[in-house]
Amino acid sequence: SVVNQFAPKSRSFSYEGMLARLYIAAIHYNENKDREQALTKSGDPRYSIEFPKYKKGGHIVRKILCNPTYNYVEELFEELFKSVNSSHYIELPSPPPPLCSQYDHPEKDTAVSVFQSRFHL
């Protein structure tokens, strides 16, 4: 779900763009994995009651967590400005070959003749 937040499936991204989005999703998860439970003004822990379909009218109780933080953004910008000012180039891994490159591709004439002989006996 965190990956979908940063790289929605309804969009396509380049290899480098997807890699960057996966890195950001991992950083975001690591910063927010141990969030505290939210408290009411009186200091009591907060809960929510939900009624999922699989319970058929039953309920479940869930903890309400504090809002996520985005403190890593400032650190990323600092590192970005350091790398831009120092002309330090970060080498990205090369993209893997396309999946279809591992299969043999027949010539078009051969494929058409096989298709025609199969359906036009």
SSE blueprint:
Elements: H1 2-6, H2 15-32, E1 47-50, E2 60-63, H3 72-86, H4 108-119
Antiparallel strand pairs: 1-2
Structure explained in plain terms:
Helix content is 41%, strand content 7%. With 121 residues, the protein is mostly helical. The termini are far apart.
Kindly report the average pLDDT value: 89
Question: How are the strands of the biggest sheet laid out side by side?
Answer: 1-2
Number of strands: 2
Structural category: mainly alpha
Distance between the amino and carboxyl termini: 52 Å
Order of helices and strands: HHEEHH
Major sheet characteristics: 2 strands, antiparallel
Given as residue ranges, the uncertain stretches (5+ residues, pLDDT < 50) are none
Question: Top keywords for this entry?
Answer:
flat, two-stranded antiparallel ribbon, mainly alpha, 121 residues, 2 strands, 4 helices, single chain
How would you briefly describe this protein structure?
With 121 residues, the chain is mainly α. Helices cover 41% and strands 7% of the residues.
